[in-house]
Structure formats: structure tokens, C-alpha cells
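Q: Convert this sequence to C-alpha cells.
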Amino acid sequence: MTGLLLELPTDRNLLLFVFLSSVVGYNYAKYPDYFLKKIKLKKPKIITWISVFCAIGAVFFFFTLNLKAQIAVVVTGVLTLFYVFPLFNFRSLSGVKIYIVALCWVIFTLLIPVFQSGFEVNCDVILKCIQRFLLIIILILIFEIIDLKEDHPELKTVPQTIGIKNTKILGVFLLCLFYGIEFLVSSHKVSQFLPNGILAVIIILFLIFASEKKSKYYTTFWVESLPILWLLLSVWLRN
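A:
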């Protein structure tokens, strides 16, 4: 999406690095007890070998990135480590989790490609960062509604704090901001008005029908796939 929106050159090394390091970071965040406390899992060997293989590949491709991109990677890596690190666990800090996740997404999927390509960090890039940050926050709100029964009260997620109805209203408001930012972007070589509009409508429907009773697949499959849909829409409807 970032390459398409900003017309950046395709960097296969960067794409491979982002993919491999994302797998490692996700496994570490998803199964912290396994990696930190050696708690047994159903398929530990698969998780271990996939993580090791991806870590080796990520380290190799890390050294193909320029200095700015590497610094951004380190910052994201530190945030990911602190996300589950026992001595300073961001997940246990009330209301912080959602912003850390969104910030990592922005750095990894937008700023690192910009730094690696040498593209100028101008006003449009900053607007795209804000837009991407809002989009991830909105998607996480849907996850938090679905996970309401399982989340510990001390997490103080948005639905726990303001209720499901108000969370949905907040999500719609943020979607309006997400779409409205597109009108502030000065360069529209790749117009996103229609793709973003369609995406916003689809997300609103997911917000409306989100509830604690929904299956996990509601988020882990359908909501997780929305960025892919966004890319497909953008490619299909690009001018």
C-alpha cells in the first residue's frame, strides 16, 4: 500500500525483511510464555523452527537496509520487546496497548519503506502516517469488542472504559477523520477517494455487527484481511 500510494520503487529485500521480522515479532508477542518461561504448546517445534528460520532471514536482510531504515527497525523492535517483556510490559499498562500496536504498524509499514527508498518525509507522508495510525486504531477497536469477555479488567481497553456502543461511535468518528485526511493530501497521483470510501463503509459494517458473541474468525480472518482488501481496491480502482 505504501509503495502504491507514494509510488516508491519495489524493494524485494525490504519486503522479505518486513515479512520475516513480522513473523518473528508476532510469534514472540503471541506466545511470550513459551519463549520466556518455556511453557509447553501444542506444536512447539513448528513455532520454534519457523521463528528461528525467519529470525535468521530477518537478520540477513536487515543489513541490506540503509541506516535510517535500520534505526526505525530498532525502535520498532524495542517497542515489540517491551510489549511482552516481564520487567516492563506495555500490555499491562492501562489503555497503552492500542497505541503501541498502531505506532509499530505505522513505523513498519510506512516509515521504513519511506526511509529505505530515500523518499522525502513531507507533509503528505505525515498525513499518511496519521491516516494509517487511525486505521489501525479503528481495526483494533473491533478486536477489543470481540475480546471483551477475555480481556482482563485491568487492561482498561476502550470497550471496557466507554462501553461497546460508544466504542462503535468512536470508531465511526475516527473513520470520518481517516477519510477526511485524504482531502488534505496535496498529491493525488494515486487517488484514494473511492478505495478509502469503500473501505470505510465496510469497516463501519464490521463495527456495527461486532459483539462479544462473534466467532474469533470475525477478527482473526475477516478483519485481519481488510488491509489486503484495501490494497486490492486501490490497485483495481487506481487512475
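DSSP finds twelve helices and no strands in the chain.
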